[in-house]
Amino acid sequence: MANHPRLSSTAIISHQYRAPATHPIDLIIIKERTRGDNFTVTDINNNVIFTVKSPLVTIVTPRQHRFLYDANRNSILHLRRSLLAADDKWKAYRGESEEPNDLVFTRERSSLMQLRTKLNVFLANNSAQVCDFTVKASLSQLTWKVYLGNSDNLVAQIEKQRGTMFSREKYMVSVAPNMDYAFIVALVVTFD
């Protein structure tokens, strides 16, 4: 994966979640077998790095919510999507907020009519309306690649492993050096 100068000075969620400058970081995101969409994120040594919790969607709140927590259960991000909209747009806010000034990024489909899924990601401070990151899925929807803007500078690779009766669905994630891995995890848990 290519290192890009813009990444070395940018922490999307926080500097503490930036992968080391010397090597990529590998993570495993496991979808739990519970009600709702809950995930556990571990490193390759099986240490819990993050958890993602999703309350059940109700008629009163026709929105899907996912909350990203660190290993100490501190709230990092609130991911929110309206179930009434057809655009598959997710918004990420700091902590558990939904306030516009706490917006971190927006993730949306580049087009509703797609043979292959392509997602555009806009950081909150983006006024140019040119995406900051692009996510492209394979035809099988089992692999994704995250690129810086519309370039071919790869910042993360994700491979989905389907679950069976005896194993849970999981994502194998490799994050480029200097890239914010909490941001990549937040993107992955919005793929379903």
UniProtKB/TrEMBL annotation:
InterPro entries documented for this protein: LOR, LOR_sf, Tubby-like_C
Pfam families: LOR
Record family assignment: Belongs to the LOR family.
Name recorded for this polypeptide: Uncharacterized protein
SUPFAM superfamilies: Tubby C-terminal domain-like
